[in-house]
Design a protein that fits this description.
135 residues, mainly alpha, 6 helices
């Protein structure tokens, strides 16, 4: 008779067998016809131009991360809205606290300027300009 840990270990072994069998069957069934077009960067026939090491603007990543954070947090609203009447006032207060935290995060991101695509250039204080002319 297996213990609880033995069942988990058996589950992992069966999962590993399924993964290995899937990889082996895929290797046996896939075509092995290599040609120069297959070995290029883009299989669509498009000729790559320039270096692949292109530096993207960090704003793309910042906007994507902000979207993911708020999107995942908003997803929590749907299950709550479905069972809202059954939960009562305690669930309402919890959701209000959750929304306040969400709005504080939104205000922080907005105030920081991460929601604006074209940020204004930072202003140099007048005192630093005077120091340049004096020295």
């Amino acid at each position: 008779m297996l213990t609880d840990f033995g069942r988990v270990f058996l589950f992992f072994i069966i999962a590993a067998i399924f993964v290995a069998a899937g990889l082996i069957v895929a290797r046996l069934l896939r075509p092995h016809r290599w040609y120069p077009g297959k070995l290029t960067t883009y299989e669509c026939g498009e000729e790559p131009v320039g270096t692949p090491w292109v530096q993207y603007n960090i704003r793309f990543y910042v906007v994507a991360l902000i979207f993911l954070i708020f999107d995942v947090e908003i997803v929590f609203l749907f299950p709550w809205a479905v069972v809202y009447q059954n939960l009562g006032m305690f669930a309402f207060v919890e959701m209000v606290i959750f929304l306040v935290i969400l709005l504080v995060g939104y205000a922080y991101v907005w105030r920081k300027g991460d929601l604006e695509w074209d940020r204004p250039e930072p202003e140099i204080p007048f005192i630093q300009i005077l120091k340049r002319f004096i020295s």
